[in-house]
Design goal:
By secondary structure, the chain is of the alpha+beta class. The protein has helices at residues 19-28, 32-48, 106-113, 135-148, 151-156, and strands spanning 65-71, 78-84, 86-88, 91-96, 116-121, 124-132, 164-173. A hairpin with a 2-residue loop joins β3 (86-88) and β4 (91-96). It is globular and about 45 Å long.
């Protein structure tokens, strides 16, 4: 099943990236299999040693990372995915970029089918409910998303798909 963006091979280096960073990004996002394999490895590493991920000390990217667990819309099984995030009061905001591929990431589709989920910040696991940002919230928060990880804005230019911007509100400890 080929889901790559039709223009994936024509990616142009954005101004804010060095050539070395761009080559790393191209390699790390060269295929959905690579992205998903890295995500599985990072999820396992997060679960094995959760300390420091929420602040970015333990993640490969050095960025604040949470572990989102959704219920698979087809399998009914729990699926854990490491994601960069922003705080908005008690809520967290995550972005369904999938590195600019034309399809939404599985975790986003899972949340569309069932918005109940779990968010792990280091060793604290909370139940939560997810919802898409409104257009007004997207306008307000997209600059924060770009500031956290400028590549989100770049990847958005590589696909006609509008990235999911998701607010997750904690409902209690898991």
């Amino acid at each position: 099943q080929q889901m790559a963006s039709s223009n994936r091979d024509q990616l142009v280096k954005p101004e804010f990236m060095s050539e070395q960073e761009f080559q790393w990004v191209k390699q790390a996002t060269e295929s959905l299999e690579r992205i998903r394999g890295d995500a599985r490895a990072d999820a396992a590493a997060y679960q094995a040693n959760p300390d420091g991920w929420a602040e970015g000390r333990s993640s490969r990217s050095g960025m604040p990372t949470l572990l989102l667990t959704t219920i698979g819309r087809k399998s009914g099984e729990k699926r854990a995915t490491p994601l960069l995030y922003l705080h908005e009061g008690w809520r967290v905001i995550v972005v369904g970029s999938l590195a600019g591929y034309d399809n939404h990431p599985f975790w986003y589709l899972n949340l569309q089918a069932n918005p109940n989920c779990w968010v792990q910040l280091d060793d604290v696991v909370m139940q939560g409910v997810a919802r898409d940002a409104t257009d007004a919230e997207r306008e307000t928060h997209w600059p924060r998303v770009k500031a956290l990880f400028p590549a989100y804005d770049y990847f958005q230019t590589t696909t006609p798909r509008k990235f999911g911007l998701v607010f997750i509100t904690p409902t209690g400890l898991a």
